[in-house]
Write a structure and sequence with these properties.
This protein is an alpha/beta fold. The protein has helices at residues 22-33, 47-54, 83-96, 133-146, 150-167, 172-182, 187-193, 196-206, 213-228, and strands at residues 14-18, 37-41, 58-61, 75-78, 99-102, 115-119, 122-126.
Length: 229
Amino acid sequence: MRYYPVNLKIAGRPCLVIGGGRVAERKVKGLLACGARVTVVSPELTPRLAALHRENRIAWHDRSYRPGDLAGAFLAIAATDDEPTQEAVQQEAEQDNILLNIADVPHRCNFILPSILSRGDLTIAVSTGGKSPALAKQIREQLEEQFGPEYALYLDLLGKLRAIILEQEWPTTANKPLFESLLHPDMPLWLRTGEWLKIEAHLQAVLPEAIGRTCLNRLKLQFQSAGSA
């Protein structure tokens, strides 16, 4: 089966996690990082999940799953090895058209979770369609070496430059090649080592005169500060 890759906007949406162990903890962390409103259903919680509940960052139903628990959820994740529970959750999700992932049981899921590499707003997802999560993890670890933390700064810089360019209200046909010209294979390295003179020389070479030195100086201060943080 082929899966349709998609990024979901879950900020502010109700998401349910069934289970309170280490796998559930990882799923909860991922949901919270994207701004979801998370409820956990489990008679037990890991120390970290218990702390999140005390901090009012998650809601908690101190019991096992019951039919009807998925009501109102945008998506649900079941992190339990109990097969009757898995089957009941699947039936409820199918009945109510709720997005469901059951950890390590792809045939019961209507969506699966890829192995994720995050660098700020840069997200690289690796999926094997559920055939080999171990291979997906291995590839993600290889990508971690190729795409270091400096890529978060790189993307942030490109995003700020894109906004500045769009403010000029130039034709789309002019913007597209300009966006592409901003890219440079050494830019992540320059950001990591703080070589702003090289960054500035590149940007001055590709940006129109309408985007002047004042703009570049402002960006320089922002990214030098970010690089030293």
